[in-house]
Amino acid sequence: MREKVLRADGPTGSGRVVSYPLGDGRRLFLIRTYCPDRIGPGPTNLYLIEDEALVLVDTGLPTDMAKQFFYFWRRQPIPHGIEALPDDFSERELTSALALTGHRIEEIDAIVLTHGHMDHYLLGRKIVAQSNARVAAHVSDTVMICNPWGMARFMAERWPVLMAMGMPPPAHRRTPEAQRQVLRIDLSLRVDEPIAADGPLTVGDAVFPRLTVRHFAGHSPGGICLLVDSENGAGRRMLCGDTLLYPITPHPDDLVAYLRTLKAMKALKDISLTLPAHGKAIRRLPERLEAIEQHHERRLRLTYEACRRPRSIWQIATMTGYFDVLVEPTQFNPLAGQEAWVHAELLYLVGGLRRTHIREGVHYFENSGETFAAVYERVRELINDEQSTLLTRR
Ligand SMILES: [Zn+2]
Question: How many A from CA of 219 to the centre of ligand 1?
């Protein structure tokens, strides 16, 4: 009934393989593959499910891409130990992990993507080339997954917002030519199976009654969780992608959607274990939901209080105590800026912040002078009441 560790993590913090029995001789496996921490979200947890077919949930990231993108993105040199890793390191981790489970890449029938971020799907191309597996993803994230110029699109869309925050542009370590080359790398994976509704996972003609898809937006527009039923009394496990993480907290791309997701998840009463795509398993789901909600309340409060006088988003993001680690004000850091922005945006939506002025393209915001409690009351109303007129009233 209990889980069994088949392999422990190595020096890269990845490599772990755990088996969870599902009853009827079926098993669920965790397979942890390399993805940088500190600079990235840390190793990616993939899950392999033995059902009527062999289903892999998320694929991880090719190690050469991890080197290219994460360090490129933050303009930081690649540490020696990482540079020395073989380019197919995470692929080898997957192959050797599969051997421990008694399977091979060629046997994988279906790949289900929890969401469209590249640390979750990019190794998919190699897996599909070897297995002919069919790839399923939510329709709202296929725009990211199928787009060959995903990186260039992201930069084109986000650049004006990042600059309006007041974030300094990156100090380039690469020549403009090398820069263009990186933006031109094809990051696409073909998606064969659109997921558009909650219910049993369906791949081609196959329906998986023991695997239930739930759409939970907020970390990305098309984030999904997969609920895995067992027949041995071990209860339901939830493979939650990056929607919930432990011990780190996920980055919401839409805080209204994300807080509504946390609320909707509180209604899940039968989850025995939540297995995220990074970090550790969550054994007590209600407590984790509560903690993440409180984390965002605290960050909303810090954001609100910072705006006693006009503040740019980047000034908020670089305040001491806003993040656990200090965000270097002179360093380009889209994730930190985005995190401060989604909190300011929500306060703005409920009338807690207003924009005072724009100076040299940077937008400045000031709070309404109410108590934070009064503003947070309206945030709660907006989250709890999907029919809320708060947005239309403004
Ligand atoms: Zn991730």
Answer: 9
Q: How many angstroms separate the alpha carbon of residue 284 from the centre of ligand 1?
A: 21
Query: What is the 385 CA–ligand 1 centroid distance (Å)?
Result: 29
Q: What is the pLDDT of residues 21-66, one digit of tens each?
A: 999 899 999 999 999 887 788 999 999 999 999 999 999 999 998 8
Q: Which two tokens stand for residue 179?
A: 């820069």
- CA 3, CA 30: separation in Å to the nearest integer? 10
DSSP 123-180: THHHHHHHH-PEEEEEHHHHHHHS-TTHHHHHHHHHHHHHHHHTPPPP--SS-HHHHH
Under 8 Å between Cβ of 52 and 39: no
Tokens of 371: 């108590």
Going from the Cα of 120 to the center of ligand 1, the distance in angstroms, rounded, reads 6
For ligand 1, an ion, list residues with CB under 5 A: 41, 119, 242
pLDDT of residue 41: 86
Alpha helices for the chain (secondary structure H):
63-73, 80-83, 89-101, 118-121, 124-131, 139-145, 150-165, 176-183, 255-265, 285-306, 313-317, 334-349, 372-384, 390-393
Q: Which domains does the chain have, with CATH numbers?
A: 4-146+188-283 (3.60.15.10), 301-393 (1.10.10)
Place of tokens 């998840």: 265
Give the residues of the chain that fall short of pLDDT 50: 394
As given in the structure block, the two tokens for residue 275 are 């297995």
Tell me the three state secondary structure of residue 62: coil
* Tally of CB atoms within 10 A around 393: 8
pLDDT value for 388: 65
Longest Cα pair distance anywhere in the chain, in angstroms? Answer: 65
In this prediction, residue 390 carries a pLDDT of 62
Q: How high is the pLDDT of residue 389? A: 64
The reported pLDDT for the residue numbered 136 is: 98
Residue 343 in tokens: 């909190």
Cα(41) to centroid(ligand 1), Å: 6
Separation CA 372–CA 299 (nearest Å): 12
| Residue 155: per-residue pLDDT | 82
Residue 181 φ then ψ, to 5°: -60, -45
Dist. CA 119 → ligand 1 center (Å): 5
**What's the pLDDT at 394?**
47
Separation of CA 118 and ligand 1 centre (Å) = 8
